[in-house]
Amino acid sequence: MKRWIIGIASLIGVIGGSALLMTFAFTQDMDSDETKETEVQRKAKTYLEQHLPEARVTGSLYDNMGNFPFEYAARAIDDKTNTEFFVYQQEESGRFVDSYHASLWEDRLERRIPSPTLEQLNNQLSVTVLYDNDKIQQLGDARFDSKAYLRKEVAPTLLVDVPRKRHEQDKAQVTAWAKSLREQQILQHMTVKIDYVSGKGELLEDGNSLFVTL
Length: 214
Hints:
The protein is α+β, with helices and mostly antiparallel strands. It has helices spanning 2-12, 14-27, 34-51, 100-112, 133-137, 170-183; strands at residues 55-62, 72-78, 83-89, 96-98, 127-130, 157-162, 191-196, 210-213. A four-stranded antiparallel β-sheet has the order 1-2-3-4. The protein has a four-stranded mixed β-sheet with strand order 5-6-7-8, sandwiched between helices. Strand 6, helix 6 and strand 7 (191-196) form a beta-alpha-beta unit. Helix 1 crosses helix 2 (14-27). It starts with a helix and ends with a strand.
């Protein structure tokens, strides 16, 4: 579930993201409608019985800030894989969907993906994996295939914060790292987004990120 918030923060920058997280944590439970929370949990239970029978509803989430693609969602967990995810109703189609595979694939890949090696960095870099849940839903039942996370249609974004300014060799080294993930059969397709940040978390390079796509 944290990936949704990380994804939002990555779009608006480190500083804005931090402020957003603080505000979201403070306001997410304000003015929620208990009737709507109960309804979304009830419908989510029916949905899970049909699509993910090993998962169960654990609660609900109310988003009154427009940060998520829903206003109300049920929180759920699959006890077999210990994956936490959302079940919610899409606004346009009106159908219920889940973020199970996005959460599952992100968790597993973050444990497998090694940190990239760049010049003048003593500490390991953290890699955050983000999948677009709308694209996953478009796979239909194919998303249940064990290799579905490798498909080009759902290629994830790998987010990496680098605590210094950009170096001339960064793009070549990031490209080589991404290619090594392909050679190790960890991922076949991906977009790597490198943000350069100061020790205080401020964006460097005028907020211009380095992108590498394979």
